[in-house]
Please model this.
Amino acid sequence: MGRIIGIDLGTTNSCAAYRTEEGAIKIIPYKGGDYTVPSIFAIDDKGQELVGYEAKRQWQLNPTKTIYGAKRLVGRAFSSDVVERMQRYVSYKIEPSKSGGVEIPIGSQRLSLEQVQAKILTKIKQVAEAYLQEPVERAVVTVPAYFSDRQRQATKEAGTLAGLEVVRIINEPTAAALAFGLGKGLDQTVAIYDLGGGTFDISIIEIRDRTFEVKATGGDVFLGGIDFDNAIIEHVLKEFASKHAVDLRTDPIAMQRIKDMAERAKVDLSSRTDVPFSIPFITMTSDGKPLDINTVLTRQLLETLAKPLIEATLEACGRVLRDADKEIDQIKEVLLVGGQTRMPAIHDAITRYFKRQPSKGVHPDEAVAVGAAIFASSLEGETANAVQLLDVIPMAIGIQRADGGIHRLFARNASVPNQKAFTFTTSSQDQDSLIMRIYQGDSDAAKDNELLGEFTFSGIRKGPAGSVNVEVVFTLSHDGILTLEAKDKDTGTVMKQTVRVSVQQS
Ligand code: AMP
Model:
């Protein structure tokens, strides 16, 4: 069997790494010396499927059939806030699936988000196979620490669709900590501040030589580089509307051009203090006169626009430090991961907050893939990379009570793997099934959390109310994915389980 590769399946870019015969960890190069593949999928006007740079290149001309940011939508309910927000900013259509999830109509197809993610994973697999000259069938794939059970399951499923067995899902910050700390004989607590294209994660991790123990994790799934772009877009649209009384929002091609320019300007403002923001012929007046966008963006303006976003990340840092029961001076290194952390204002904010300069010890774009590959080689039994990961779940998991509250099974930051047993007693004569709704989230009201599924156990032994005890064992895997098993406590008979995952909250 070929080796297991490590894959960082990012919101904007994805990256893969592998272990060489000599035991070194290397990033798999993509065309033309690039190490990352844009996480973009498109269908062009000839009906051809494009992934990566090919998709990105034609993005402006084909905005309605170019899918990006799929990672923000995967494993989510159509009714969720994230989906609603995404609809405002993307040019492709987002529609509800039959089960209440999300589907994207594109060309003659309707793709689930798992299928879109699978297109990107297939591309990575192909690039890896061409480079390594061997079949690649297994991978360790990273996800944001903040991903729920459903988002993790969806990521595994995407792997399967791409012909990749996802042997383990690990958290991105944990992977970055591995890339930073393995082999250094450390005994210290580090913070990983990960601000990528679509999500923000902050994790506090204790490194004791080869053991990496996550003490707490948190973040904001609404927060990433895209939001910094959106802040610029909003500003430009407002300025244009007040100058020309024209709303460009209804013009997908114009919006796409503004989006591209906004991201480019934002990136340039990390190394310059002002940049021109010019887009000729963005639209026409009602009497046919062409209109241009012609303005200048300054770093100072970007910093003002981005201030609430940066503040929100620092608030999350405070919450996670409290959860980890750590003081700021106990954090010996702060690792920055994710492209958006290149913004100087973020360096400054982190330096002020943690009272130390962020570490230069990891490459913000590559550390996560490197960590995934280290872990992959540890799973393969490579002793030089042998590590022990002690990770946690990001949000509590519990059962809905009859009064609409939650009975917590696993608290936020409970360690994985983990197991809990709970005994239910039949409440009616000849009750033959047991139905339970499992939720993930930190709210005390079930309806404010995410429904993971409705589990029905059938075939309970007949008898008077209160006569049968059913023991349900809840198991959290290393991946942070939940499975359930129920058995008759007296006879030991295992019950048949059916799961209905309805994403409609009620
Ligand atoms: P990632 O998901 O880690 O690839 O991060 C991608 C995000 O980082 C995108 O929103 C990029 O616009 C942003 N990004 C990349 N380079 C820079 C830079 N030099 N300054 C600011 N943001 C950047």
The domain at 225-304 is CATH 3.90.640.10 (Actin; Chain A, domain 4). The pocket of adenosine monophosphate is lined by residues 10-13, 196-197, 225-226, 263, 266-267, 270, 338-340, 342-343 (CB under 6 Å). The chain has a mean pLDDT of 93.
